[in-house]
Amino acid sequence: MTDRTDIDLAKLRTRLEERRAEILAHSTHSEDYRKPVELDQQAVGRLSRMDALQNQEMHLEQERRRVVELEQIEKTLKRMDDDQYGHCHNCGEPIAAKRLEFDPTTPLCVDCADHVSHV
Question: Where are the zinc fingers (dksA C4-type) (predicted)?
Answer without folding.
Answer: 88-112
